[in-house]
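Chains adopt folds. We examine one example:
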Amino acid sequence: MLLDVPFIPDTEYTAFLRDRAQSLTSVHFSLTDPSLSDARQRLHRQDMNEIIHGLRRLHGVDKYVLMNARLHAPERYFDTKGLAHTAQCLERLSDEADLKGVIFADPYYLQALSDARPDLACRLEAVPSINAMPDTADRVFALLAMIGSTGFRLPSRLVLDRSLNRNIDRLNRVTGQIRTRYPRMRLLLMANEGCLYQCPYKPAHDAHVALVNEGLCPERTFAMNRDFGCMRRLLLDPGAMLASPFIRPEDLHEYQGKADGIKLCGRNRGSQFLVRAVTAYLDGSHTGNLLDLMDAMGDLNDRVNIPNPALPDTFFRQVTACDKNCLACGRCADIMDRIALRTDPGLPRMGF
């Protein structure tokens, strides 16, 4: 299956992607620019010239810029100068790097940008972010109807909600309904990002990151997750790691015909992580710690080792056929008890 992968302006990583361009359907990237806020913290500012230079080396690969902050400060919708700067960035990316579209999560900002520069909007696709949780055909149709009310073009691809990865009947139903109405749209699945299944912390998490990027509150996301949220839950209930809706490289073939491609994420983890993840999913196998491929759960890879080859051959059937009542089931917890090792600093290696 073709991959959608993060792009970062690293010379060796760009060469790695260029050599595998025939296996890529698209790349997504962030400018880490306040005028194009995305859904992750800004670790450092990217140089536009370096981004454009790298993107131009990826011939035949669609390019999408991330504008997927969950929300913006309300004054941004009315900031003529700020909207003009955003439009100038997008216009340059379109002219010089063949930008295909924007990935968005805030419909207010999309509409404001469309109103400010309709001549630019009509050149670009508006792609709903996976953070909009497109888990039903009705939700997808509502998102597309909203895009249709702006000057932006409808998307040619869409990444469906993570929860569908583990509910094959529902996945088939949703993709069938979408393809009936939009037969040319490519439907992708997120492979290496899941965190908790149906994560109850996600809306607040996304809002907090947006508030940080808007300069409206201090950055405390990691501490929040460690002390009160998903990381605390994952360590207290290790079975939740396997219940997370990721897709293993070895199971990609199970999705043939169900989806048109796979999205990988992890742009803030650097080129070494990205090369490892892309290689594993292109090869369809990974011999190390499963968490070394995961984005959010990868924060625990120095504390937990899940030997990927040790997962049972029945793993895919087990996690896609269950009723998701994890408290009553316990099968994922049993697997973790058998194969996973805690490697916390200062602690002996032991099973859960």
